[in-house]
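Annotated sample (chain length 334).
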Amino acid sequence: MIRLGKQTIKLNNPPTIVNTASIVGPKESEGPLAKYFDQCLEDEFWGEKTWEKAESKIIKETVNSVISKSGIPSNDINFCFAGDLLNQCISSSFGLRELNIPFFGIFGACSTFVEGLCLASVFLDSGAANNILCATSSHFCSAEKQFRFPLELGNQRPPTAQWTVTGSGAVVVSKVGTGPYITHITPGKIVDMGIKDANNMGAAMAPAALDTLITHLNDTQRKPSYYDAIITGDLGHIGKEILIELAESKGFNIKNIYNDCGVLIFDKNSQDTHSGGSGCACIGTVFSGYFFKQLKNRKLNRILLIATGALTNATSSQQGESIPSIAHAVAIEN
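Output written by the structure step:
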C-alpha cells in the first residue's frame, strides 16, 4: 500500500470484487432498477413478526446468496464487515450470528457499505486475509420507527425528505481474481456545516461528499473525466444538485458523469419518494445490483463510488444538535 497525498491509499495488489448479491423491498421492486436485483420482496415483513426481524432476515439471505454466487466456501472467507442503521447494528449482528465467520460490526450510517470495502481492501492488500465479505442493510419501516415517527401516525413528509431503502447489498472481495478491482480508497473526514434539519439529509451530506471527492482527485492527480461515472450513495435529488454546484464552484465539472443511487433507485414522479432514496441499503443494493453488472459487462470500466453518511441519531436531533456527515470513496476499475 502507498499513501497518496492527504487521505488516499493506492493498493499495490488491488483486490477483486468477485461477486455481489442484492435483495430489495416492494417499493424498490417497483422502481426503474428492479430487474437488476437478485430478489424482490412482496411485503415488508417477509414472514417475520417485526420489521427489525425482517431486516435481519434480508441481510442473512443476501449474504447467503453472495457466498453461493462467489463459489468461495464460507470456511475460506476470513472476515465479515457489516453494519446497518439500527441501534447497536442489531440487523447485522442478529442476521449474521450463525455465519461462523469472524465479524466486524461497523457503523458509518449510510456510508457503511463503502467503509466496509475500504477496510476489506486494506486487509486484503496487507496479506491479512484472502477473502472478505462486506454487507449492509436498511429498512424503511424500522428506520422511520427509530429516527422519526411511528408509521401509524401518518406524519406528512416534507419535499426534502428521503425514503429509506428496504433491502441489503453484499459483496465478496478477494485477494486474487480478474476484476473489477478496487485500486484506491479515500476515507473521509467528518464535515459539519451546521445543518440541523433531519428531513434534509442530502443538504447535510453534500459538503462531506465534496470534501472526499476533491481530496481523492487531488491526491490521485486525476480529473473527473478519468472516470466513466462518479456515483454517490444517497444524496437524493436535492443533495445531488447541491454537490454539482459545490464542485463547480471549486473548479470541477462533474455534471455529465455524476449520478446518485438515491436518485436512480426510485421514480420520483410515480413513486412519491420526494427527494429520493437513502439508507445503508441504498448504495449497497444499487452497486450490487446495477453497477457491478455494468462493470462486469464492461459498459463501465472506471467508477468512483462515494458513500455518504449522516452521523446523527434521534437523541442528538431532539437535543438540537447539527448533523455531522462523512463520505468514503473507492475507485473501482477494470
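Annotation: The mean pLDDT is 92.
Annotation: The radius of gyration is 18 Å.
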